[in-house]
Design goal:
single chain, mainly beta, Immunoglobulin-like, 4-stranded antiparallel sheet, Ig-like_fold, disulfide bond
Length: 119
């Protein structure tokens, strides 16, 4: 007796990569608005949650996109947040937090940028 298994369009379930946060290439004085970008890749299914924080307080993303648009084996997310630098921000952090079904209710993945590298 021969058994045969056929898998038809089984959705792939893949964890996102740890988020990477990048800031501006040049330093800036306080009162300037700077952009920070967070990227995570290789996850599936497409639904994902991304949040930004500065010193533990949630801040708004100026733009977030998940690519590609249609069906795919895996997806990438990119998000940008604009942060106004304050004189005391030398010790501050900007954190990008990614939550996905593959993390099974565990803690979200985090990427961090220290503002001491920007001011």
């Amino acid at each position: 007796m021969t058994m045969m298994f056929i898998v038809v369009n089984a959705p792939s379930v893949v964890k996102p990569s740890p988020p990477m946060v990048s800031g501006p290439a040049t330093r800036a004085p306080p009162e300037q608005t700077m952009s920070f970008t967070c990227r995570s890749h290789g996850f599936s299914p497409r639904n994902i949650s991304l949040k930004w924080f500065k010193n533990g307080s949630e801040i708004t993303a100026s733009q977030t996109s998940v690519d590609p648009e249609g069906d795919s084996v895996s997806y990438n997310i990119s998000s940008t947040a604009k942060v106004v630098l304050a004189p005391g921000d030398v010790r501050s952090q900007v954190v990008c937090e990614v939550a996905h079904v593959t993390l099974q209710g565990g803690p979200p993945l985090r990427g961090t940028a220290n503002l001491s590298q920007t001011i």
